[in-house]
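HUMAN: Spend a minute on the protein record below and explain its fold to me.
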Amino acid sequence: MTSGSTSNRIILDLNVTAPVFELIDIFGRAINLQSYKGRKVFIGFFRHAGCPFCNLRVHFLQKMYEEFKAKNLEMIFFFESKEKVLLSSLFHKEISPIPLISDPEKIWYQTYGIENSALKSTMSHLTSFIQTAIKAKTKGLPMHLMADGESINTIPAEFLLDENLIIRKIHYAKGLNDRMSIEHIFDFVENEKVLS
């Protein structure tokens, strides 16, 4: 299941079944990964509700929702913020119908090998925070200080699962603006062949 670990961090492998979860999202819906069999799935792990880097990515993916769904790709988003913090944000409430799961204890962040790196976070803030914040502000996206229990060191990650919930693409970010390319996502959804 893992290709290794960094200190106590688990790192997931390609071509293995994704860790299955059965959780309640912030909208009160039961989200069971097993029920997604037969569809391709994008799982995104984001930082806190006020992070402009993550909110820009979510804003972009939201706009792709209908197109992805038409190509049999579903999305599930995780945030480290508490449910009440996410529900106090109009932007995050409007993420529905995409499931949005609050994981402040970071149980699933650890399970999926999400990295904590002060160095990567600091470098991203020093090199691209101002530009990212301006872009987020022009789109009306939330941007605020962290709430209780959130971490400045969380580094995002994105996963693509095939129709059998096998992990086919993993992107552990190298910085806060580093995400899986849209070309990779489209290549994945347009490739109907399921590898065995």
The chain has one domain: 19-190. The first strand starts at residue 2 and ends at 6. The mean pLDDT is 88. The two ends are 16 Å apart (CA to CA).
